[in-house]
Design goal:
The chain is α+β, with helices and mostly antiparallel strands. It contains 13 helices and 30 strands.
Amino acid sequence: MASPRTTLLTLSLAAAFGGFVATACREALDHEAQAAPATAAALPAMGALPTAVGSTPMPSLAPMLSRVTPAVVSVHSKQRVRVSPFNDPVFSQMFPGLTQERISESLGSGVIVDAARGLILTNHHVIEGADQVSITLADGRTLPAEFLGSDPDTDIAVMRVKADKLQAISFANSDQLRVGDFVVAVGNPFGIGQTVTSGIVSAVGRSGLPGLGYQNFIQTDASINPGNSGGALVNLNGELVGINTASFNPRGAIAGNIGLGFAIPANLAHNIAEQLIANKGVVRRGTFGIESQDLNERLARGLGISADGGAVVTRVFPGSAAAQAGLRAGDVITAANGQRISGRDALRNFEGLQSLGSRVALQVLRDGKPVQLQIGLQEQARSVAGGDIDPRLTGATFAELPASLRSAGMSGVLVESVARGSRAAQNGLQTGDVVLAATTGAFDDLAAFRAGFTQRPSELALRVLRGNQQGVLPMR
């Protein structure tokens, strides 16, 4: 091989004496090159990415994804919607012939978690209100899906398909996830087709996001966009660690991903799915049986403690799990199972995510001194007939507010249904009303609403939220 010094000399002579000297020098260099070892022939003629470094294969997620992607499906839902040219519902009823039917379609993702039974997990919001749901497998097959149940408060839904040669993803223990663990999201963003993105776990146990239900999210910077909802978040072993459910962007989710994606932990999704299957589409939740409020500086001064956060117990219902455990009004709950409780909403979120019958270790401040209590959770009534509370409410059924409304800061109970011609209907109650307060006082939830009627008031009025307007309804 020619040395740099020889090459420099050749260029100098060529510039000074023209082609003759340069040619002579080039012949000398060719002779020197022939005498050197023939290593140049071993070099590639064109640049290319190596497939291995020495004898070690290049790292790749492809082998893992070849097992995962067949278990992630695209979900197609259709809903029939009645559309009227009139914004006023009264005019819509007067001219029903002008109302037209429109088909609303949406796309999402799902995960096969049991190939033998054809069970698929997705988000509740992906198939909410759908009249028809189908799934498309990675191999191109499109199949009708049977709806088995959903839980809007955790945003989990279960479907079933009948097909051969399905491939499922196994569950990982999501409680073992750590910040910094590598994860991969698989889904169908914007309906463009199956897409894979990767990132890390940015946070665990994330809560307090507006507009969502009970929250214990895995946060990740793996891109999660509209259409990814219901898809898989897997670890590097190809095990399911979460169900992708939401992304955050100040400009709205449709604006795209900015590295703030959220997934429901696999352990929670698995627990909810098993309940939906076993209880025919119903999730049974437990309750402590208390009312509480945030610890503020004024309350802290009155209790003689520092205002470092917590939920102040304002009422303990007789016969409740809290009463049996010895919890008292004035106690400040600061932690549950080692998890910090910052206030009333944090306590309600924790309570809603526990399995029915589970035991909870509460850390409490009582008269400024720490107290440890063990408490179980009794089953929470899902709804109650108005006639069982007060005759003036006969015909109405009351239920807990959806967690999405609670996370938006609302308290009260939902009017789940009102029988036509009933006493409640004659008093003006309508399905979908939110009862915020009554003559008996304000209340947080269904249990407190019922407890307020221990002594029936001589006169009864309800403060009701209907749409965006509030009003008072006298009950006669």
